[in-house]
Design a protein that fits this description.
Blueprint: E1 12-15, H1 21-32, E2 36-41, H2 44-56, E3 60-65, H3 71-82, E4 87-90, H4 105-133, E5 136-141, H5 144-148, H6 154-174, E6 179-186, H7 199-204, H8 211-218, E7 229-233, E8 236-244, E9 248-249, H9 258-263, H10 265-268, H11 282-291, E10 310-313, H12 319-330, E11 334-339, H13 342-354, E12 358-363, H14 369-380, E13 385-388, H15 403-431, E14 434-439, H16 442-446, H17 452-472, E15 477-484, H18 497-502, H19 509-515, E16 526-530, E17 533-541, E18 545-546, H20 555-560, H21 562-566, H22 577-585, H23 606-613, E19 621-623, H24 625-634, H25 642-645, H26 661-667, E20 684-693, E21 701-715, E22 718-729, E23 735-746, E24 776-781, H27 786-790, H28 803-808, H29 818-833, E25 836-843, E26 852-860, E27 863-870, E28 875-885
Parallel strand pairs: 1-2, 1-4, 2-3, 4-5, 5-6, 6-7, 10-11, 10-13, 11-12, 13-14, 14-15, 15-16
Antiparallel strand pairs: 7-8, 8-17, 8-18, 9-17, 16-17, 19-21, 20-23, 20-25, 21-22, 22-23, 24-26, 25-28, 26-27, 27-28
The protein binds 3R-hydroxydecanoyl-coenzyme A (HDC).
The site of 3R-hydroxydecanoyl-coenzyme A has 28 residues, from α26, β20, β22, β23 and β25.
Length: 895
C-alpha cells in the first residue's frame, strides 16, 4: 500500500549537472510533482533544453548556468527566480579515469575541484538560506567506485567517498535548523556507460530509478532521515553503513609490539560478533579503559623487523607521526621524518637515531611527495613503506567555514596523501613490493560538528585507498587505511588523566608497523584503532527492497516500504563494486504485475472480458537435466554437441528456445472453447511466438508460471488468441522467461471482437526481411521422427502424431510443431551469430517431419532478422522473425 502523497509543491529544488543523465531525470521528477526546478549546468543549451522539456510537460523550471565551483553565482540565479532554495542536489560530476600510474596532478585536481569543492561551494551558498527558513535538504552523490574502489578511478573514488562524510557532518550541524543531508550511491546508465553497456542493461539501469529515493529524502513531509548512505539502481533500494568487527584489545604494556599485533590479526578481522558503534558513544572509550588493567601480556607472533627497510612517515614531527617514527626505529628501520617544521623534524630524527634506527628529515609540506621520497632515496637508496599521516585541522561550523579553511584541509590530507602515494608508486611497482598506510579518521565514519572539511578529506582517503589497493595488488603493493584516535596536545587540556594514559599515541604505533610489514597481506582494508584496540570496518548493506524494473516506483510506494530499505536484519556485506552490482543486476528485466483492466478492449465479448479478468491458475513445472537433453535433441541437436546432449559436459545447458517448454503446461490448458465460438482443437494452429529470456536457464529445478489472456482477435473466418506467461524460478521468484503465444483458430472468427492486436514491441515487430541477399544461410533436414521426439517435451497435440486427427485439421499427414521449427532456426542462429536474449516468429506455413529447413539470416545491429523456408516445396514456414543477440553478438567470438 502506498503512503500518503509526498508533498513537493513549490519546493525550490536546485539540481547541479541537470542538463542530462540522472540530473535531468531528477528535474523531470520534481517538475512533474509541482516543484520549482532550477537546472544547473555548465552548458546553457543543455540546461535550457531540460527547462523547455519540463515547462512543456506543465512544470516550472529555470536554468542556472555556471560551474558548481562558483556556487554563489549559481545559487544567486535560483534566488533571483524563485526567492530561495529548499533542496540542493549535488549531482554534477566529471570523470578523468586513468590508472594511478598514469594519473596526472591535473586529472586528480580536476575531479577534486568539481566533486568536492563543487559540493562544498554549492552547499555553502544555500546553507544560510536553509538555516534561515529552517528547512533544507541536501543530497550528495557518491558512487560505488567511492565506497568500494574501482580500477582507474583513484581520483573519482576519493572524491565520491569524501561526500559520504560531508553529508554526515552537514546533518549534524543542520539538525537544529531542520536541514538534513544524505549521500546516495547510484548505479545508473549515463552518457558514459552508454558506450560500454548493451542496450537492455542500459534500459534496466535507467536514471529514472534514482529519483524516487531522492524524492523520499527531500519531500516536505518525507521521513526525517539524515547523515545516511543509500545504494540504489535498477529498482533496488538499500542502505549502507559501516560495521565493525568485535576486534582485539591488546594490552598496552611492553608486550604490545607489531609481532603481538600479528599474532591476533585474524581476530581483528573477525566479524562473527560485529558491532555498530554509535558516534560519540562514551562507552566506546570507557570499555577500553576498563579492560586494560586486567588484560594479560600479549602473546608474540612472527618476528617483525625493519632492518634495511625504509619507511616514510609524513607529519612525523609530533603526535602520532612521531610515535610511529620512534617505534619503527626500535624495529631497526630507516625513517624519513617529514614535517613542515625543521626543528620538529630534526628533533625526531635525533630520537630515531638514538632508538636504534636511522633517520633523515624531509622538511616540506606533505604535498611535496617527490621531495620527500627523494630524501629517502638519497639517504637510504630505496623506500619500502609509506605512512601518510600528515594533517591539519581548521575546525569551524560550516556556516562560518571559509574557502581557505576548506581548501587547506583538503590539500594537506587528501592531496598530500595523493602526492606521496604518487611519488612512491613507480618505485614500489618496479621493486614489486610496497606497503602504504593512509590515515582516515573516526570522523570520516561518524561525521563531526565543525569538521565538514576534515571529515570529507578523511573519508576521501578511504575511497582513494580502496582503488589504490585494487591497482597495486598485482605488483605486491598493498594499501590499507586506519582511523586512529589518540590524545593530542589539544585533548591534553580537556581529557581526564586516565583517558590520556589509555589513549597515548604510542598505543597505535604497533598496529601501524604491522600493517606496513611484509607479514601483512591484507589490502584495501580499513581499521579503527586506539588505546591498543584494533578492529576492521566493512560495509554492511540492508537486504533492501526491489521493485519491478520496467517502470520507476513512486516515492510514495518507496516510502511505504522504508522499513525494508533501511532494515539491517538480513544484511549483506558487499566488498567490491562487482559484488554490490550482483544484487542490483538481479533486478534487471523484472516487470510490474499487469494491470488486467488496462488489457480489456471495449470490443471484447463478455466471454473474453471474463477470461482476461480471471486468468487460470499457473502450474509449476519441475524438470531435470534429462528433460533439457530431450528438448535439445527434439530441435535437432546432435550427439556430438556435448554441451547440449551430455549432462557432464563442461558447459552443459539448455538451448535458449527451451524457454517455451516450462510455460506450455499453463498456456496449453487455457480453455479456448470458453473464449471463442466454434472451437475445434483440430483447427488450431500455432500462429506466433515471442520468447524473452531474462535470466540464466537452470538445467533442472522447479519453475512457476503466471499465465494470462492478453487478447482475442476476430480475424473474420478465424480467431487469434494471445496468451502471455511469465515463468519464474520457484525458489527465488526471479523472472526467467516471458512467453507470448498466439494461436490461430480456423473457423472461430466472426464474433465481432477486436480485429487488430496491440503493439507489444519486439513481440509484434514486423521484422521484414531486407531486400538484399541473406548474410548467412543454414540448411538442415529434419527427421521423419522429429515431431514424435519433440512432442515428448510436453506438447502432446495429436495433430503432430495422429494421422486421423491431422486429417480432421485438413492435413494429409501429421505436421511438425511450430515451436520445433523455431528451435531449429534458433540453433542455426546461435551457431552463426551466438546466443540471443529474445526471439519472435510468425508461423506462416506448415512443415512436415522429414522436410529440410532453410534459415536465411540478416544481421542488423544487435538483431538478426530471419526467415525459414521448406526446401523441398520452396514454401515459407517462419517469417517476420528476429532475435536480439546477447551483447550485440560479441559473445560469439568467445563461444
Ligand atoms: C505454446 C503456447 C500454446 C500454443 C499451442 C500450439 C499447439 C501446437 O501443437 C500447434 C502447432 O504447432 S501448429 C504448427 C505450426 N503452425 C503452423 O504450421 C501454421 C502455419 N501458418 C498457416 O498455415 C497460415 O499462416 C495461417 C493458417 C495461420 C493463416 O493463414 P491465412 O488464413 O491464409 O491468413 P491470412 O489471410 O494470411 O491472414 C488473415 C489474418 O490473420 C493474420 N495472420 C496470418 N497468419 C498469422 C499467424 N501465423 N499468426 C497470427 N496471425 C496471423 C493476418 O495478419 C491477417 O490479419 P489481418 O486480417 O488483420 O491483416
Amino acid at each position: 500500500m502506498a503512503s500518503p502523497a509526498l508533498d513537493f509543491k513549490d519546493l525550490v529544488v536546485l539540481i547541479t549537472g541537470a542538463g542530462g543523465g540522472i540530473g535531468k531525470a531528477y528535474a523531470h521528477f520534481y517538475g512533474a510533482r509541482g516543484a520549482k526546478v532550477v537546472i544547473n549546468d555548465v552548458s546553457l543549451e543543455a540546461a535550457q533544453s531540460a527547462v523547455d522539456e519540463i515547462v512543456k510537460a506543465g512544470g516550472q523550471a529555470v536554468p542556472a548556468v555556471g560551474s558548481v565551483t562558483e556556487g554563489q553565482a549559481v545559487v544567486d540565479q535560483a534566488v533571483k527566480a524563485y526567492g530561495t532554495v529548499h533542496v540542493l542536489i549535488n549531482n554534477a560530476g566529471i570523470l578523468r579515469d586513468t590508472s594511478f600510474k598514469k594519473m596526472t596532478d591535473a586529472q586528480f585536481d580536476a575531479i577534486v575541484a568539481v566533486h568536492l569543492k563543487g559540493a562544498y561551494s554549492m552547499t555553502k551558498a544555500v546553507w544560510p538560506l536553509m538555516r534561515q527558513q529552517k528547512f533544507g535538504r541536501v543530497i550528495n552523490t557518491a558512487s560505488p567506485a567511492g565506497v568500494y574502489g574501482n580500477l582507474g578511478q583513484a581520483n573519482y573514488s576519493a572524491a565520491k567517498m569524501g561526500l559520504t562524510a560531508f553529508s554526515k557532518s552537514l546533518s549534524m550541524e543542520g539538525a537544529k535548523y531542520n536541514i538534513t543531508s544524505n549521500a546516495i550511491v547510484p548505479v545508473a546508465a549515463s552518457a558514459m556507460t552508454a558506450t560500454v553497456m548493451p542496450e537492455d542493461v542500459l534500459r534496466s539501469l535507467s536514471p529514472d530509478h534514482i529519483a524516487p529515493l531522492v524524492g523520499v529524502l527531500t519531500a516536505k513531509n518525507g521521513p526525517k532521515v539524515a547523515g545516511r548512505i543509500f545504494e540504489l539502481g535498477a529498482g533496488f533500494y538499500s542502505e549502507l553503513r559501516w560495521e565493525r568487527a568485535e576486534g582485539v584489545i591488546y594490552k598496552t604494556d611492553s608486550s604490545f609490539t607489531a609481532s603481538a599485533v600479528a599474532a591476533r590479526w585474524g581476530q581483528v578481522m573477525d566479524f562473527t560478533r560485529n558491532t555498530h558503534p554509535v558516534p560519540g558513544n562514551p562507552e566506546e572509550m570507557s570499555r577500553v579503559i576498563e579492560a586494560q588493567p586486567s588484560l594479560p601480556p600479549n602473546a608474540q607472533g612472527p618476528k617483525i623487523d625493519y632492518k634495511g627497510k625504509t619507511v616514510i612517515i609524513t607529519g612525523a614531527g609530533a603526535g602520532l607521526g612521531r610515535t610511529y617514527a620512534l617505534y619503527y626505529a626500535t624495529l631497526g628501520a630507516n625513517v624519513v621524518v617529514n614535517d613542515v617544521s625543521k626543528a620538529n623534524a630534526d628533533a625526531v630524527v635525533a630520537e630515531v637515531n638514538a632508538a636504534g634506527g636511522k633517520g633523515v628529515a624531509a622538511v616540506c609540506s606533505a604535498e611535496e611527495g617527490d621531495a620527500i621520497v627523494k630524501a629517502g632515496l638519497d639517504a637510504f637508496g630505496s623506500v619500502h613503506a609509506l605512512v601518510c599521516n600528515a594533517g591539519i585541522l581548521r575546525d569551524k561550523a560550516f556556516v562560518n567555514m571559509t574557502e581557505a579553511m576548506w581548501d587547506d584541509v583538503i590539500k594537506v590530507h587528501l592531496r598530500g596523501t595523493y602526492r606521496c602515494c604518487k611519488a612512491v608508486w613507480p618505485i614500489f611497482q618496479a621493486q614489486k613490493f610496497g606497503r602504504i598506510l593512509v590515515t582516515a579518521s573516526p570522523n570520516a565514519v561518524y561525521g563531526a560538528h565543525g569538521q565538514a572539511n576534515y571529515g570529507t578529506a578523511k573519508a576521501a582517503i578511504i575511497g582513494f585507498c580502496k582503488t589504490l589497493a585494487i591497482e597495486g595488488s598485482r605488483a605486491n603493493v598493498l594499501v590499507n587505511c586506519i582511523a586512529p584516535r589518540a590524545g593530542t596536545a589539544m585533548t591534553a587540556t580537556v581529557w581526564p588523566k586516565e583517558m590520556l594514559e589509555t589513549f597515548k599515541p604510542e598505543f597505535v604505533a604497533p598496529v601501524v608497523a604491522f600493517l606496513t610489514s611484509p607479514e601483512c597481506t591484507e589490502t584495501g582494508t580499513f581499521y579503527e584503532t586506539f588505546g591498543g584496540f584494533a578492529a576492521q570496518m566493512r560495509w554492511e548493506r540492508t537486504q533492501g527492497v526491489a521493485f519491478p524494473n520496467d517502470k520507476p516506483v513512486s516515492p510514495e510506494e518507496l516510502a511505504a516500504n522504508w522499513d525494508k530499505v533501511t532494515s539491517f536484519k538480513q544484511s549483506t556485506h558487499p566488498a567490491s563494486a562487482g559484488e554490490s552490482f550482483i544484487q542490483i543486476s538481479e533486478n534487471f528485466g523484472t516487470t510490474s504485475k499487469p494491470n488486467r483492466e488496462s488489457e480489456i478492449n471495449e470490443k471484447d465479448t463478455e466471454e473474453i472480458k471474463h477470461a482476461k479478468r480471471n486468468p487460470p491458475q499457473g502450474q509449476d513445472f519441475t524438470y531435470t537435466q534429462r528433460d533439457v537433453m530431450l528438448y535439445n535433441l527434439g530441435i535437432g541437436a546432435h550427439a556430438t554437441e556435448l554441451n547440449n546432449t551430455y549432462e557432464n559436459a563442461e558447459s552443459f545447458g539448455a538451448l535458449p528456445t527451451f524457454g517455451v517448454v516450462p510455460q506450455f503446461i499453463s498456456s496449453s490448458t487455457i480453455d479456448l472453447g470458453k473464449i471463442v465460438p466454434n472451437f475445434n482443437p483440430a483447427k488450431l494452429l500455432h500462429g506466433e511466438q515471442y520468447l524473452k529470456i531474462h535470466g540464466p536457464i537452470p538445467t533442472e529445478g522447479t519453475l512457476t508460471n503466471e499465465p494470462r489472456i492478453f487478447e482475442a482477435l476476430d480475424k473474420g473466418k478465424a480467431a487469434s488468441v494471445t496468451t502471455i506467461v511469465e515463468t519464474r524460478d520457484k525458489a527465488t521468484g526471479k523472472l526467467i522467461f516471458e512467453n507470448h503465444s498466439t494461436v490461430f483458430i480456423r473457423g472461430s472468427g466472426g464474433f465481432g471482437g477486436q480485429q487488430k492486436g496491440d503493439d507489444r514491441g519486439a513481440a509484434t515487430a514486423a521484422n521484414a526481411a531486407p531486400k538484399r541477399a541473406p548474410d548467412a544461410v543454414v540448411e538442415e533436414k529434419t527427421s521423419e521422427d522429429q515431431a514424435a521426439i519433440y512432442r515428448l517435451s510436453g506438447d502432446y497435440n495429436p495433430l503432430h502424431i495422429d494421422p486421423q486427427f491431422a486429417a480432421i485439421g485438413g492435413f494429409k499427414k501429421p505436421i511438425l510443431h511450430g515451436l520445433c521449427s523455431m528451435g531449429f532456426a534458433g540453433r542455426h542462429i546461435i551457431n552463426t551469430y551466438g546466443p540471443f536474449s529474445d526471439i519472435k516468429v510468425r508461423f506462416v506455413g506448415t512443415v512436415v517431419p522429414g522436410e529440410t529447413l532453410v534459415t536465411e539470416m540478416w544481421k542488423e545491429g544487435d538483431k538478426v532478422l530471419f526467415q525459414v523456408k521448406v526446401k523441398e516445396r520452396d514454401a515459407p514456414a517462419l517469417a517476420n522473425a528476429a532475435v536480439t543477440l546477447v551483447n550485440g553478438g560479441q559473445l560469439k567470438s568467445k563461444l
